[in-house]
């Protein structure tokens, strides 16, 4: 059973009542599915008309090259969407894969049904599309930030740009990052050993302190 109370609080269904959401989900023929840890939700090369909203769990968007090298492009949690850009593009093969980081429940929505006005011409679709456009715009800004982060010439530059961005999002210099060390290395497109060595240097210099995925940024040390 889909938790409509939770959906009311999500960005996609912002401004909808529970009753409106129930009617909308029926109109969209939406369905939910649970994926095991490590299970692929979407795979590179597939064509999909559906995109997902995470009802519970976590999903990573990854890219594997010809030699098996993996890069984490993004990570999403409860209430967030993934795959919507590809679903909205007709017959566009996926250049990425989406994989469940842990047991994850996903609400699947058909992009064609979302974008097309239904026979009853309900107002739900207009509001839903407006919310979806807002989400896509925000993701575009997030992608711009990531390009800025990984375009830095040094590992330290990439780390500082990433941690600075996270501090801004969390409005604190005491932050939790959503990646373990290997995942962070893949996200920043750097070698894990080199990343660990650089983090250790930065901690010795007093720029940061950290334990696992908990980081504290020391602004004074950079002045």
CATH class of the largest domain: Mainly Beta
Low-confidence sequence ranges: none
In CATH terms, what is the architecture of the largest domain? Sandwich
Gyration radius, in Å: 19 Å
Please bin the fraction of helical residues: 40-55%
Summarize the structure.
With 223 residues, this protein is α+β, with helices and mostly antiparallel strands. The protein has helices at residues 4-8, 18-28, 84-87, 111-115, 123-150, 155-170, 181-188, 192-204, and strands at 31-35, 40-42, 50-56, 59-64, 70-76, 81-82, 97-100, 104-110, 174-176, 208-211, 214-217. It has 2 domains: 4-133, Jelly Rolls; 152-222, Arc Repressor Mutant, subunit A.
Describe the protein in words.
It is a single chain. This protein has 223 residues and is α+β, with helices and mostly antiparallel strands. The protein folds into 2 domains: 4-133, Jelly Rolls, CATH 2.60.120.10; 152-222, Orthogonal Bundle (Arc Repressor Mutant, subunit A). The chain is 40% helix and 23% strand. It is built from 8 helices and 11 strands. The chain has a 4-stranded antiparallel beta sheet with strand order 1-8-3-6. It has a 4-stranded antiparallel beta sheet with strand order 2-7-4-5. The radius of gyration is 19 Å and the shape is elongated. Residues 153-221 form the HTH crp-type domain. GO terms for molecular function: DNA binding; DNA-binding transcription factor activity. This is Cyclic nucleotide-binding domain-containing protein. Keywords: DNA-binding, Transcription, Transcription regulation.
